[in-house]
From TrEMBL:
The organism's taxonomic lineage, starting at the top: Bacteria, Bacillati, Actinomycetota, Actinomycetes, Micromonosporales
One cellular component term from this protein's GO annotations in UniProt: plasma membrane
Protein name per Swiss-Prot or TrEMBL: histidine kinase
Top-level division of the source organism's lineage: Bacteria
Keyword annotations: ATP-binding, Cell membrane, Kinase, Membrane, Nucleotide-binding, Phosphoprotein, Transferase, Transmembrane, Transmembrane helix, Two-component regulatory system
Topology versus the membrane: Multi-pass membrane protein
EC number annotated for this UniProt entry: 2.7.13.3
Domain Histidine kinase: 304-525
Localization per record: Cell membrane
TM regions (residue ranges): 169-190
Catalytic activity: ATP + protein L-histidine = ADP + protein N-phospho-L-histidine
Organism, scientific name: Pseudosporangium ferrugineum
Length: 525
């Protein structure tokens, strides 16, 4: 099977054909223009020579002589030779020739138009006479009193004109050949460059490649951002636009700054650094970004950024961690309850019934008091369940978690998902802070619905934060712990607060020496 022509090969052949046709057309046009110009020049020349002879007094005097040919023939031939014309005929008004390049024709009648000249004008015509086809002119000869006493015809044969053109043809042919060679060389260089850029692919192959690549780019469930060497965004697929919040009608062929990308994504693109599975916040989404430099044949082409939505996975992971923590807490409480039950049964067997009842009711009272406090203050069931679950986790880790008596939430002042994000991450951060601290290890939670905002304040007895740490606490990736995937919780809190136009702050807890994390969320109108 013969190999199909590449785009570069087809373009080269087409360019050579077009250039050849253009040069051939130009050469033919130039030849026709030169022929026309040569004819006009010949007409001007013979007209000038004829008028010069006709106005000469010697010509009029010779026409009145007994033998005009004896005087005019040598004069006409000398002038013809000097001017390069082909014939000079001086004749009587009745067409009788007195001069001619062929002496045997002297005395015969002149063939051609003379009526205009007899009327006092100038006749210019292309006529086939005794010497062949020629361009000729006929002018009158006037005596001193104004009478027309004769006519002068001067001509140049078309063969002479064509011979003059043929003498110019080698130069024209050389110029044509040079033009063709230069055009072919330019077309070859252009096709060579195009072959490198298209990798020798044919039109059908490039069309198929474009269709496949376009279908793949628009159907994959990963965001893709391609940036060229100049830092301009060359491509964003549909998923990339969705994850980064880029409108569908926004052009994706300019600087990244013009697309209004999320700050962390814009910083990563501008840095051009290579990274793998780096968390990036984009609005209320947590994206996992991987970026690398692309090269072809040793040349850097730019960078490719891939994005995966990690929000749902992180939420599921958080719920799994909560369930796992709650399960562990329930297991520990089951062990504790078994121990207390054995103790109560033993005390009953020993006859110390009152002490057994007091021990059993004290534990139930403490657990019920916390449940009543949380459920009574927080009418949002998901938030109440979250804090009860966190309380069990805190108890397992040896941390005392209490809900402030001033806590109060009626209904759903802000979307419950956002409220759970804020409260859950603040409490988790506080539990982490006091986990390695010395006793007492306490966390206090205040969630209060006010007229225009919801106040969330979490106080812990941990080691606290320095001013620099407090300033950076809500920045993505900041953490006092070590481990992959940390430093995201408080940044999510920041994202929620900024989306509502609220505020977030970290201040030292004067009474406990720990930290107070405060978030205010305006209630949507």
């Amino acid at each position: 099977m013969s190999r199909r022509w590449s785009i570069a090969g087809q373009l080269f052949a087409l360019q050579v054909l077009v250039v050849t046709l253009l040069v051939a057309s130009g050469t033919a046009g130039a030849f026709l223009l030169a022929r026309r110009d040569a004819r006009h020049a010949a007409i001007e020349e013979v007209t000038g020579v004829a008028q010069a002879i006709a106005r000469s007094p010697a010509t009029a005097a010779a026409l009145d002589a007994p033998d005009p040919s004896a005087v005019l023939q040598p004069y006409a031939e000398a002038t013809r030779t000097a001017t390069g014309t082909d014939f000079i005929v001086v004749m009587a008004p009745d067409r009788t020739r007195y001069t001619h390049p062929r002496p045997e024709l002297i005395g015969q009648k002149f063939a051609g138009s003379i009526a205009g000249a007899l009327a006092g004008g100038t006749v210019v015509e292309q006529y086939r006479g005794s010497l062949g086809e020629s361009v000729r002119t006929v002018v009158p000869v006037r005596a001193g009193d104004g009478r027309i006493v004769g006519l002068v015809s001067v001509g140049i044969t078309t063969d002479s004109i064509n011979r003059g053109l043929l003498r110019q043809m080698p130069a024209v042919a050389a110029a044509t050949a040079v033009a063709l060679l230069l055009a072919a060389a330019g077309a070859w260089l252009l096709s060579r460059r195009l072959r490198r850029q298209t990798h020798g692919l044919g039109p059908a192959e490039m069309t198929r490649m474009y269709e496949y690549y376009d279908a793949v780019l628009h159907s994959v469930r990963e965001g893709l951002v391609v940036v060229d060497r100049d830092g301009k965004v060359a491509l964003i697929n549909d998923e990339g636009r969705r994850l980064l919040g880029v409108p569908e009608d926004a052009p994706a062929d300019g600087p990244a700054a013009a697309l209004d990308l999320p700050p962390e994504a814009a910083e990563l693109i501008a840095s051009r650094r290579s990274t793998v599975d780096e968390p990036v916040l984009a609005g209320d989404r947590v994206l996992v970004a991987s970026q690398r430099e692309t090269r072809f044949e040793g040349r850097a082409l730019g960078t490719v950024l891939t994005l995966r939505d990690h929000t749902e996975l992180r939420a599921l992971t958080g719920e799994l961690d909560s369930v796992r923590g709650l399960t562990q807490a329930l297991q520990a409480q089951a062990h504790e309850a078994a121990n207390r039950l054995h103790t109560v049964l033993t005390m009953v067997e020993l006859g110390r019934t009152d002490d057994a009842i007091r021990l059993a009711t004290e534990e139930l009272a403490l657990a019920q008091e916390l449940t009543d406090q949380v459920v009574g203050a927080l009418h949002e069931p998901a938030l109440a369940a979250l804090l009860l679950g966190k309380s069990a986790q805190a108890s397992e880790r040896g941390v005392e978690l209490t809900v402030d008596d001033d806590s109060r939430v009626d209904g759903e002042p802000v979307p419950v998902r956002d409220l759970l994000t804020v409260v859950g991450n603040l409490v988790d951060n506080a539990l982490e802070a006091v986990a390695d601290a010395g006793p007492p290890r306490r966390v206090r939670v205040l969630v209060r619905q006010e007229d225009t905002e919801v106040l969330v304040k979490v106080t812990d007895t941990g080691p606290g934060l320095t001013p620099d740490q407090a300033a950076a606490a809500f920045r993505r990736g900041w953490t006092t712990k070590h481990g992959e995937g940390r430093g995201v919780g408080l940044s999510l809190v920041r994202q929620v607060a900024e989306r509502y136009g609220g505020s977030y702050a970290v201040t030292p807890a004067a009474a406990t020496g720990g930290a107070v994390l405060t978030v205010r969320l305006p209630v949507p109108s």
